[in-house]
Amino acid sequence: MASSSRSQFTSRFGFIMAAAGSAVGLGNVWGFPTQAASNGGAVFLIVYLLMVFLLAFPMLVAELTIGRYGQANSIRSFRAAWPKGKVPMMALGIVGMIVASLILSFYGIVAGWLMGSFAESGLTLIGMKQQGLWLTTYSVPRNLVLMIAFMLLTMYVVRNGVAQGIEKWSTRLMPVLFVLFIVLTLYIFTQDGALEGLKMYLVPDFSQLTPGLAVSAMGQAFFSLSLGVCVMTTYGSYLPKNTNIPKTAAQVALIDTGVAFIAGLMILPAMFVAKHNGVEIFSDSGALLNSDTLVFTVLPAMFDSMGMIGAFVGVIFFLLMIIAAMTSSISMLEVPVSCVTEELKLSRTKAVLVIGGIIIAISATIVCNFQLLFGAVIQLTTVYSQPIIALLITLTVGWIWNRHQILAELKQGYPELENSWFWKIWPWYVRIICPILMLMVFFT
């Protein structure tokens, strides 16, 4: 176990904002609406909500509990849960750390594009549209410069530690994110064509329901809640012992799902506003065009069609996207940094420079071999690695970790837990139902 001098979140609000910030990222604002638009709108929303409730929430509790029990980085926390299985538990922590780093390597590229779009919208606003074109025109130098700029920002926050870096910036950025979201969504609702998008998002067509849709919804729930990459294990290790983990996990899951829902309310109507303004969004076969770059093609085209007010809305939208990306990227960088500082006894500053440098090098390799690597890395990490690691963590909590230790750990923040409905259901649910549901989804 780690010593009690280990860094901690200073308030429950700080932890909830940081954990929700990790969960609320491009997965919600870019991934979820794109997935919903590509998979029949309302039907995808229903299956996604079911996946969050039936799978992601019980597993979020499992990851947070392991982290707080271990009071250390993910490698040590897994080892603490099963001291006899030192090698497989170390391997699980190391693989989780590598996957978190790989996700950040492509995330940094996408977030860099957002910074470019934000700066370009700002230049358009002051009448310098031509000067801003380089920032939104695809090129290797532009991708490298913007990715490095975003990664340096992320490294700056993580270098300042848990309370002064992650918690401080999450409690500042998340409330701003919520306000910008609501303002922008209400504005989109006033535009012609928005109602058509709202109908697609909220009125289900069950003929669209397929096994592939269920797999997409599960992957989206894991990616969105940062499950299976040791982020929540690491954040859990910074939780004070008197925190009620099930209640806190429910709040994080609700905030995250709420933001994904609002992002859909904003982006699907925005797509149809763009369509109303002459932007092509669907092919002849009805498939979504540019699904991967929806945020970078359809929405800027919509902003352009609105004149000056569009440039202003664009600035707000891309600022919102950068905040969402930043609160997630700091959590992903914290996973390997916490491992390196504790296992190799490096200072936090050195660890951030070393790990940040390695991730920048991986990102640069992806940028220079974009067609070959970008989609492949996303597929490897979010579609395969995340659910498999999440399944292994669930099996560890359900089958390997001593039930009395789990109960004792959870009771520290929830003394009456033993007599609650949660404790009657959760242990066997994580043991049997979660793995079965995951395997069913995997193999359909």
Automatic annotation (TrEMBL):
Pfam families: SNF (PF00209)
Annotated Gene Ontology cellular component terms: membrane
Compartments in which it is found: Membrane
Domain of life: Bacteria
Membrane-crossing segments per the record: 12-30, 42-66, 87-115, 135-158, 170-189, 209-231, 252-274, 294-323, 351-378, 384-401, 421-443
Membrane topology: Multi-pass membrane protein
Key words of the record: Membrane, Transmembrane, Transmembrane helix, Transport
PANTHER family the record matches: TRANSPORTER
Protein's name according to its UniProt entry: Sodium:neurotransmitter symporter family protein
Organism expressing this protein natively: Vibrio palustris
